[in-house]
Structures are given as structure tokens and as C-alpha cells.
Design a protein that fits this description.
382 residues, 0% strand, mainly alpha, 75% helix
């Protein structure tokens, strides 16, 4: 008996790598490298870090509750460097038996650090304002495409465009004031916005590493079937998440404004900002329901260049999962800052997990896990 040949003939217990797992690890490597570069720059240039982790507002990141901004910045740099090293090792030497568990543990550390400890109220604010700014652009593109592809929609779209034009002309001073105030604010917060986007994107990439590892091992199949079977209910519950905030912002159009609406009369530009944020919340409702709608699987006729073609699953899974992860990570800072009222008006503690389950169900549906299970049962019984 030759122990060397016997050992070589033993089947490997390691899970084979898939292309999806390799891509997830590559994106995780890129994200960790970029976060390491950013945090290194923030350490060297404190003036850039003044609006990020050195800000006087500890709500910029949950970890600021326990450590100083300088310590947090250094810790994020260390965690990012660890992630980059682990991801590089996983790509270069995946055949080593200890590499897979090491990268899995590292992935969990990266997700907790970048999606929870590095996030705070500033994360929600940055995402909300960026989405609000995108709402007018989305409406214009949608109107143009409806006019191009649906003749019946031309008159309603034309009437809406005329109404919007009248509002812009009569309220041009308000719009100018809003743009004048927002542009400098965005430039001033550029480093903070970059930090939020990079850390959240890196957390999403590492979460993808964890999920692909679990999928390759088959440990999530039973849970995925259950979530997919109940995905309609879970999606409807997730769509309720942004409703309280969206409804509260709509009250700014009434004589009984809520959620800081007392300042509307004194500052019309603030009213415009609040209404755009409310519109962003309603956009979240619509996009969430798209996870169970036909247009969430096949591009509608009015969509430019892709009409009638299947929607790539990752086009919904990545942003949906990212928002869910962001909401879960921001839930604790929101509770700390706004208390019970904030938790009811903006229920990130509920919305985040519900959206994660809705996206999970969408992914399972697009992967056909229920059909696979139904096809496997006759074989198992036979």
C-alpha cells in the first residue's frame, strides 16, 4: 500500500469553485482594495475625513458610538487590507484546504464591518438624497419612452408635461434655490458619499461570496424553496416598508404637514426637497412590487433597446440586495437617533429583512428552484 497514492485517490471534500463564485470573489477583492485606498487617503488627509469619520456627528457610523473617528478609519483600513489579502489568496491558491474556510470567515467580517459598523444615519441620508435627485430624470425618461411606444399614453403624458412646465415656470425661484443649496452640499459631502458607496458595495460583494459558498454547498436549498413559495406575500410586506415615510411626505401637500412640515411655509425649497424624498420612497414601493410583476422578468415594450427580452436576474438582485443590506445596517443607528417615532415612520428594522427575503424569493423564482424540486421528487420516490 502506498500512502501517497491512496491519499491522492481519496475524493476531495472541498466544494468545486463556480464561475459565479469566482466573479463574486473578484468583485470582493476589487472592493476591499478600493476601500483600503480610500481609508488610507482619509488617514493621510484629515481634511477629507472631516466630513466622513472625523465628523462631529457620531451618527455617521455605528462604530463611532464606541471609538473615535481616527481609530475607526484605521480599523476600516486594516479590515479592508485583510479582505484584499484573503480574496487574492482565494483567487490564486484555491486548492489549499484552509483557504476556503479562511475566506469565508473573512467574508463574514467584511460584511459586518462595512454593512453595519461603518454605516449610520448618514448612509440613509446619502442614499435618499441621491435617489431623490434621480426621480425627475426617471420621470422624464419614462415619459419619453411612453410617448414613443404607446400612442394612447401621448395625451396623458403631454398634459403631465404641460403641468410640470407650468410648475417649473411659476416656481422657478424655488427650483433655483433648491439647486443652489444642493450643489454645494453634494460637493461638500463628496468624500462621505464616496465612503458610503464604496463600503456598501464592498459589503454586497462579500455577501455574494458568502451566499455563493452556501449555494455551492447546498445548505440553503430547503430555505430557498420555502422563501420562493411565499415570495408574493414577502414582497408585499417589503413594499410596505417605505409607505409610512412616503405618506408622511405627501402630507406636505395638505394644510396638516407632518414629519417636519412646519418649516414648509418658511422655506419652499425645503418643501421641494421633502416631496422629492417622498417620491423616492414611492419609487421604492413600485420597484419592490416589480419583484413579483411581469416587468420584473421581461422588459416592457417602452424600455429602450431591451423591450420583450428577459430581465437579467442580477439586475434586480444586486441593487435589491444592496438596499436590503443598507437598511439592515442602518436600523440600529436610526433607532438610536430618532427613537420609536423614527422607527415607525422609517421602519428600516422591518423593511431591510423583508426586502432581503423578497429579493431571495425573486432569485429562487428566477433560478427555478420550485420546478427543480418538483422534478426531483418523482426520482426520489422511484
Amino acid at each position: 500500500m502506498n500512502p501517497l497514492t491512496d491519499r491522492a485517490q481519496q475524493p476531495s471534500t472541498r466544494q468545486p469553485r463556480t464561475r459565479r463564485g469566482e466573479r463574486a470573489l473578484t468583485w470582493a477583492l476589487l472592493g476591499s482594495v478600493l476601500v483600503a485606498v480610500l481609508t488610507g487617503a482619509l488617514l493621510v488627509l484629515p481634511e477629507l475625513n472631516a466630513e466622513v469619520y472625523l465628523s462631529d456627528q457620531v451618527t455617521t457610523a455605528l462604530a463611532r458610538t464606541w471609538v473615535s473617528g481616527q481609530v475607526l478609519t484605521g480599523a476600516l483600513l486594516g479590515v479592508a487590507a485583510l479582505g484584499a489579502a484573503a480574496a487574492a489568496l482565494g483567487r490564486i491558491r484555491p486548492d489549499r484546504g484552509w483557504v476556503t474556510p479562511a475566506t469565508t470567515i473573512t467574508a463574514a467580517i467584511q460584511v459586518v464591518t462595512f454593512a453595519v459598523l461603518a454605516q449610520g444615519m448618514g448612509t440613509l441620508s446619502a442614499f435618499g438624497y441621491l435617489t431623490a435627485l434621480a426621480v425627475p430624470v426617471i420621470l422624464v425618461v419614462l415619459g419619453v419612452q411612453l410617448v414613443r411606444t404607446r400612442p394612447r399614453a401621448r395625451i396623458p403624458v403631454a398634459l403631465a408635461a404641460i403641468g410640470a412646465g407650468v410648475l417649473l415656470i411659476t416656481g422657478r425661484d424655488v427650483v433655483a434655490s433648491y439647486v443652489t443649496n444642493m450643489a454645494p452640499a453634494l460637493l461638500r459631502e463628496a468624500s462621505h458619499l464616496l465612503a458610503v458607496v464604496l463600503t456598501m458595495a464592498t459589503a454586497v460583494a462579500w455577501a455574494a461570496v458568502l451566499l455563493t459558498r452556501a449555494a455551492e454547498a447546498g445548505s440553503l436549498m430547503r430555505a430557498t424553496r420555502w422563501v420562493t413559495r411565499h415570495r408574493v406575500l414577502l414582497t408585499v410586506l417589503a413594499a410596505l416598508g417605505p409607505l409610512p415615510y412616503g405618506l408622511a411626505r405627501l402630507t406636505w401637500l395638505t394644510p396638516w404637514p407632518q414629519l417636519g412640515g412646519d418649516a414648509v411655509a418658511d422655506d419652499p425649497a425645503m418643501a421641494l426637497q421633502g416631496l422629492l424624498l417622498g417620491a423616492a420612497a414611492w419609487l421604492g414601493v413600485v420597484l419592490t412590487l416589480g419583484l413579483v410583476a411581469r416587468w420584473g422578468e421581461v422588459f416592457p415594450r417602452w424600455f429602450p433597446g431591451r423591450a420583450g427580452r428577459p430581465v437579467p436576474p442580477l439586475l434586480a438582485i444586486i441593487p435589491g440586495g444592496g438596499v436590503a443590506l443598507m437598511l439592515c445596517g442602518s436600523a440600529i443607528p436610526l433607532l438610536q437617533t430618532l427613537g420609536l417615532e423614527g422607527a415607525l415612520v422609517f421602519p428600516a428594522w422591518f423593511w431591510g429583512p423583508a426586502l432581503a427575503l423578497a429579493v431571495w424569493g425573486y432569485a429562487g423564482h428566477r433560478a427555478g428552484v420550485l420546478k427543480q424540486g418538483a422534478a426531483a421528487r418523482p426520482d426520489a420516490s422511484g
